[in-house]
Amino acid sequence: MGCSGNTKSSPVSGAVTMDGEPLANAMVSFQPIGKELNSGPGSTGKTNDRGEYALEVVGGGNGAVEGLHKVMIRSGDAKVTIPAKYNVKTELRYEVKPGNNANVDFKLTSK
What we know:
The chain is mainly β. It has one domain. Helix content is 0%, strand content 40%. It has strands spanning 9-10, 13-18, 21-22, 26-32, 43-46, 52-54, 56-57, 64-65, 67-75, 93-96, 106-108. It has a five-stranded antiparallel β-sheet with strand order 7-5-4-9-10, with no helix packed on it. Strands 2, 3, 6 and 11 form a four-stranded mixed β-sheet that branches. β2 (13-18) and β3 form a beta hairpin. Residues 1-5 have low confidence and may be disordered.
């Protein structure tokens, strides 16, 4: 029920910082970019106090589907403003490769 068999996922984890400091309680979202309208399920992960995250595929599974993704980072803290270039107008991209994608770090700046 649901997923096609050719969307392989691989583990993705890393850390998010803002101006050099860990960004806690942020939501990291990966959305596949492809030629098809629906290029596979997206993935999300929430940062801990050290800014570390691990992605889970929406609908079940670890990591993210392999291929190119646009990355959006949103704050879970009302006091922290993340510039639009990291979320609604994201410029962030990452290609998920087969195997473990560790140390997928995003170094954000508030300016």
